[in-house]
Specification:
By secondary structure, the protein is an alpha+beta fold. The chain has 15 helices and 33 strands. It has a 6-stranded mixed beta sheet, with helices on both faces. Strands 13-14-20-17-16-21 form a 6-stranded antiparallel β-barrel. The radius of gyration is 30 Å and the shape is flat. The structure holds guanosine-5'-diphosphate.
Length: 624
């Protein structure tokens, strides 16, 4: 994990707190050396090697005589003596001949970075907060970011033209604030899914005339799942139909309780158009930041995270990096994800050349050997060899994670290992709001002392890519009720091994999760609609017989049925009795009328729709 350490921001725990994967490589025990008579005859082992080493060191590490190593090297046309150095790649090649796998030795620099996680208090200095703006589309996120950028140019650089580098800094009352320039929770959670949490504070923009909307709720869930405090900016206050009280009430209903409502969330009324309330908003950010006591040690090698990166025709690879800890200097050797480099030049958010960048500062850096990805970690290291080694480690780790990524994010497997999971995060999507509450309540009721079911986000509509990202970043599963999976989400879920389970029957949702929690879950299945009937009249002594017309498919006795009225589920149960005229029948096909009794469902009315389902086992993923 050495490539992910640093920055003082904890990386997310492994999915659902599962135990760490066993260490892949170990050093051979020098006191108990297995004897090697000939190459390629022992169990493959992995040893750690430095970036460069002498022939003797390699021989010791591989536990073979130096003569054999020299022989191997000669066969490759490399003439060396026992005390001469060879590089890692050559050593790896030789090692392969002895059926020994090699891994780059953990760097001192990385150990230093780990130690720096527990920084000495005396070395820490306050650092500016890093803020992401979130909210529903068209509520004014971009406008607000623009206004903040224009009105608060850092003093010494006044007049500079703002460059778009993915983040910018403003100065308020002599204090700096860093804004990430890609608004929205998707970008925020995408970074988090890659192990990088750059944001300290989320500003939730809600349009005063439009109120809380689906993406407002999503943003709240995403911020809360990341444990990032929220400040509400009620925007568009200039509009005649602005209604901030309604916004506050809706927020309270969504669990974000502002001061006026007795909660502890700050809310500021602003207008991006009229540029009002902006200073108050910025000051509020500073107040909240102060409570967070954000600190970093500027006097160490830098760590940071890539905000965005591209290939520039004239300048080569360009990456915007947010410095999280330490100070990055021009001339520093770095590893950015799997890419090594030496910082050739740095530019701030005003396009001005700078020599150094301290914590929470966004800078554009030149001098990388390639284009890294957003979310990649930057580590400044002492020298070129370390940069290469660090990058190599990151590359190797990425390959390893790809190859060995177990499908631990499926509901079945999560609970197989006893005690592996203490909390099951669920993102719940349903067709109508009315279905969410009963499912959520039933699921949360399954929690025991040992395991907790936590719905980290719920909402109406299909399963989206943003839902997948949230689960990817937080661990857990997605449950869809009467909804579909959007194609983008399906692709994302497949590549990230996220379990999406689709249901039509509430009972089955709850039962599956219950079984999973007790380790009894059967293989995955999907519910296939079998038939649909419309209730034409209701009769029988207790009014429980639904005289119905089968609209499509067929209705079978004993199958599970859902009764809905105007698209809303009003009950579920088993088909207890199925009659045509006076006869009990096993099934009735489309186009025929019949009498249906559903156990546990009463109050059926003409016009209600009865849908029945059968379960089908699926080998792989659920169909769209
Ligand atoms: P985003 O999708 O959240 O980034 O929203 P935009 O910043 O693109 O704004 C959406 C629309 O709302 C644009 O037409 C803006 O001009 C308008 N808008 C943004 N802020 C305000 C405001 O404070 N008052 C008014 N009246 N309109 C605004």
């Amino acid at each position: 994990m050495s490539t992910r350490v640093g920055g003082g921001r904890p990386r997310r725990p492994g999915p659902q707190g599962r135990p760490a994967r066993p260490q892949q490589h170990h050093r051979p025990d020098t006191n108990n050396r297995p004897s090697i008579s000939a190459p390629k005859k022992r169990e493959p082992v992995t040893v750690e090697l430095a970036q460069t080493m002498t022939v003797k060191e390699l021989a010791d590490a591989l536990n073979v005589g130096s003569g054999l190593i020299i022989k191997e090297l000669i066969s490759r046309g490399i003439m060396v003596t026992i005390n001469q150095s060879i590089d890692f790649a050559t050593a790896a090649d030789v090692a392969a001949a002895f059926n020994v796998k090699v891994a780059p030795k953990a760097l001192d620099a990385s150990e230093g970075a780990i130690a720096a996680e527990i920084e000495e208090e005396e070395n820490l200095r306050p650092r500016p907060p890093v803020v992401t703006i979130m909210g529903h589309v068209d509520h004014g996120k971009t406008s607000l970011l623009d206004v903040i950028r224009q009105t608060n140019v850092t003093a010494q650089e006044a007049g500079g033209i703002t460059q778009h580098i993915g983040a910018y800094q403003v100065e308020v009352s002599g204090q700096k604030i860093t804004f990430l320039d890609t608004p929205g929770h998707a970008a925020f959670t995408a970074m988090r899914a890659r192990g990088a949490q750059a944001t300290d504070i989320a500003v939730l923009v809600v349009a005063a005339d439009d109120g809380v909307q689906p993406q407002t709720l999503e943003a709240i869930s995403h911020a809360q799942a990341a444990n990032v405090p929220i400040i509400v900016a009620i925007n568009k206050m200039d509009k005649p139909d602005a209604n901030p009280s309604r916004v506050k009430q809706q927020l309270a209903e969504a669990g974000v309780v502002v001061h006026d409502w007795g909660g502890d969330v700050e809310a500021v009324e602003v207008s991006a158009r009229k540029k009002t309330g902006i200073k108050e908003l910025l000051e509020t950010i500073l107040v909240v930041a102060e409570l967070l006591e954000l600190k970093a040690n500027p006097n160490r090698l830098a760590t940071g995270v890539v905000i965005e990166a591209k290939m520039d025709k004239t300048r080569g690879p360009v990456a915007t990096v947010l410095i999280e800890n330490g100070t990055l200097n021009v001339g520093d050797f770095v590893a950015v994800g799997a890419i090594p480099g030496k910082v050739r030049a740095m530019f701030n958010d005003r396009g001005k050349r700078v020599k150094k960048a301290d914590p929470s500062t966004p800078v554009e850096i030149l001098g990388l050997a390639g284009v890294p990805q957003a979310g990649d970690r930057l580590h400044a290291v002492p020298n070129e060899a370390a940069a290469k080694l660090f990058a190599q480690q990151a590359a190797q780790q990425a390959i390893q994670e790809n190859q060995t990524a177990p499908r631990l994010t499926t509901l079945e497997e999560m609970f197989k290992q006893d005690g592996a999971v203490k909390e099951l995060n669920v993102v719940l999507k349903a067709d109508v709001q009315g279905s969410i509450e009963p499912i959520q309540t039933s699921l949360e009721r399954l929690s025991s002392d040992e395991v907790k079911v936590k719905v980290i986000h719920s909402g109406t509509g299909n399963v989206t890519e943003s839902d997948v990202l949230l689960v990817q970043a937080s661990g857990g599963i997605i449950i869809g009720f009467n909804v579909r999976v959007e194609p983008g989400a399906k692709r994302a879920a497949e590549s990230a091994n996220i379990d999406i389970r689709l249901y039509n029957i509430i009972y089955d949702v709850v039962e599956d999760v219950r079984k999973a929690l007790t380790g009894m879950l059967e293989p995955k299945f999907t519910e296939v609609q079998e038939g649909r009937a419309e209730v034409r009249q209701v009769f029988g002594k207790t009014g429980n017989v639904a005289g119905s017309m089968i609209l499509d498919g067929k209705i079978t006795r004993n199958s599970i049925a859902r009764v809905s009225r105007n698209g809303k589920t009003i009950g579920e149960g088993r088909i207890e009795s199925l009659r045509r005229f006076k006869d009990d029948v096993r099934e009735v096909l489309a186009g025929y009328e019949c009498g249906i009794v559903i156990s546990g469902v009463s109050g059926i009315e003409p016009g209600d729709i009865i849908s029945t389902f059968r379960k089908e086992r699926v080998a792989g993923d659920l169909p769209l």
